[in-house]
Write a structure and sequence with these properties.
alpha+beta; three-stranded antiparallel sheet; 3 strands
């Protein structure tokens, strides 16, 4: 049961981080997709760079980089591509 609660807590924390990043860097009404390439190690992402941004100049690149800081990666290691979809409202 504690594993489920921990996972639920982590999910809620990630959702809060995502909402904070989007509202800080981009318009939550707009939609966009961003592709990042990052290094995964120790359950976290680092050295991320933006490969594609469907709404260039609207801040979604910065929002995606911000979200990547909080994205849990588990045991994955090495270079990873991270697609992010911002659905808008």
């Amino acid at each position: 049961m504690s594993l489920v609660l921990t996972s639920a807590t982590a999910a809620a924390s990630f959702e809060e981080s995502m909402a904070r990043c989007i509202s800080k860097h981009a318009n939550t009404r707009d939609a966009a997709t961003v592709m990042l390439e990052c290094t995964a190690d120790g359950g976290k992402l680092s050295d991320c760079k933006v490969l594609q941004d469907s709404a260039a100049g609207k801040g979604f690149d910065k929002a995606a980089l911000c979200v990547a800081e909080a994205l849990p990666m588990g045991s994955k290691t090495g270079q990873v591509k991270v697609p992010m979809r911002f659905p808008g409202s």
